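cron nightly-structures :: item 1 of 1
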Amino acid sequence: MILASLVFYSLLDVRHLGVLIFSAAFNYAIGAALTYRINALKNTQSWLIAGIGFNLALLGGYKYIGFAAQLAGIDIPPVAAPLGISFFTFHQLAYLIDIHRRRIRPSGMRDYALYVTFFPHLIAGPIMRYGQFAPQLSPPARTIAYGAGLFFFSVGLFKKTVLADTFAPISDRIFAVAATSSGVERLEAWKGALAYAWQIYFDFSGYADMAIGLGLLLGIALPINFDSPYKATSMADFWRRWHITLSQFLRDYIYIPLGGSRHGKIRQSAALLVTMSLAGLWHGAAWTFVVWGTLHGAFLAMVHGWRWGPGRRIIFPRLVSIGMTFASVTLLWVLFRAENWENAMHYYHAMFAYPAPVSLPLNAMEWLSNAVWREWLWIGAGGLVIFALKPAAHWVGYDHDTHVIERLDVTWRHAIISGILLWISFKAMSGEPSRSFVYFVF
């Protein structure tokens, strides 16, 4: 599996394979030094700082050197970052910090090499802790789950090739037009925002489902990364459902060390703003990402602020809470998607400008033959899938509280669904090449 993972990683650009191997080797050496000093009852602080510094320098050198140079007024050519560097860097940061905190004991170079390079989660997660991964490599813990693995993979592939790749052209076109001087009308702007909300959800959750499916086919249970995030009743609930493993990483390694909720509401709000600002910067080296993360932090601080003292908590009906949260998330996706700050402002202006008159088709056939309205039909279908259907994990024995699959309840119905979804997905892929995953750029 290590060899297969290295070959897999080399397929896009073999030149970056050396970065992955060097990063893994250096972090393994730091982990060994930490373990030695722990066994010798010596202080590990300096070695941990060295390990964190190396990982942040490697990540910053590839992802943020251009952004820093731009702030300093220096023009340098762009540097192509190795695929998945944000994810395998976070994996290794968690590994070093957990050794320092005495939460794990390394089990050898082979297990660590597979932990870092394991191809299902190498490119875009889920972000998995070493303490979750390594125990599964020792029999009899490892089991192959063919039915559940195929089911997860088929659902994820369908999400990506049929759903996400259908909404991507809609959002791409509208965001591109909105960035020009001509702009778009308000209805089109909202369509583009919804199309992108559907695209990024189906794209990233589809990848996560495929990763989980491949893991199960190889005997490794990866953590669940999505749990109906657009059904969240608050921004805090959203981040418990969206990119769950990233949320847990940010909580355990940034938010809690900054004080969390232990030192009053002002300190907690500051910790939330810093944590989410860094989360935005992790996604991309641009002010739009930083502001996107900071605004999420502000919303999280507001959610906790509503709970200050007796009688101050504001409670909305569930459907109202879901609608408010989804609207907030969708509006912030505009910052996430826009190429720069100016384009984002143009887009917001289009969304809230006075609408131009909209001519409605006269009959059903004219409505169906109109490309613009067919796109709205797709938007509606995507919303129905997101809000009416349960995620794949809920079909096989998912525990909502622990975010793990407690059992694998797979029947012949799952096999039929898998076959149908795979057939549709392969038909879609044969007609047009699939687009890159959204999170490949991070």
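cron nightly-structures :: done
The chain has a mean pLDDT of 89.
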